[in-house]
Amino acid sequence: MLYTDRAFIDRFEPVADLGADAVEFWTWQDKDLDAVERELDAHGLDLVGMVGTEGPLTDPGRIDETVAEIERSVEVAADLDCPTLFVLTGDERDDASRARQRELVAEGLEAAAPAAEAAGVTLVLEPLNTAIDHPGYFLEAAEEGFDIVRTVDSPAVELLYDVYHQQVTEGNIIQTVTENVEDIGHVHVADVPGRYEPGTGELNYPNVVEAVEDAGYDGYFGFEFRAKEESDEAIQAGLSLRE
């Protein structure tokens, strides 16, 4: 979402130059992974997250295909020393009950969990807002996401808590994170409105980050935001939250 005026492979250097020590990106299937590894090594960066599947875990006719996609992504993540895979549910369907679709999501994660456990990779299930960015998406509420994670009951399955999506959906960020931090495997940040960098909108991000860390979260904060003006300035705004 940053340095979109550059070719993907040319985005690693400026991030490192600004002081970041890690990166994440979305899909790996459309990337030159050998080139990615060279850039990571050249600039001393870790790859900490990428998309393991965009679903549909909600489709009973494609659940085996989706699980196989996650398992293949686990192999790729292990090869890249990437500890986290983002898992999306896919859209809500009208040919199965919501309860059945929720069961399918849990069953799919349960089926993929042994491969993730063996590889030391964490699958993080992500709720998304349906009001602005992802109309029709199945999993919107953090509480339902936590319930699914607890149903699966695997150390390799946790929740991706995206502060932007959950502020749009339901708010109550600090209390939700504090009460459920043991099931959060990754955090994304962006401000509301606009999905720009922290400090551009309504969220008090210094308070949010401090509360998340005080609750016991010690992982990365992924910068899943657009730059309101310049990418350099946006990244610096994000990095300043943990100075």
UniProtKB/TrEMBL annotation:
Pfam families: AP_endonuc_2. Signal peptide: none annotated. Keywords: Isomerase. Residues 13-239 form the Xylose isomerase-like TIM barrel domain. InterPro entries: HyI-like (IPR026040), Sugar_Epim/Isomerase (IPR050417), Xyl_isomerase-like_sf (IPR036237), Xyl_isomerase-like_TIM-brl (IPR013022). The keyword Isomerase applies. Gene3D superfamilies: Divalent-metal-dependent TIM barrel enzymes. GO terms for molecular function: isomerase activity. This is TIM barrel protein. The lineage of its organism: Archaea, Methanobacteriati, Methanobacteriota, Stenosarchaea group, Halobacteria.
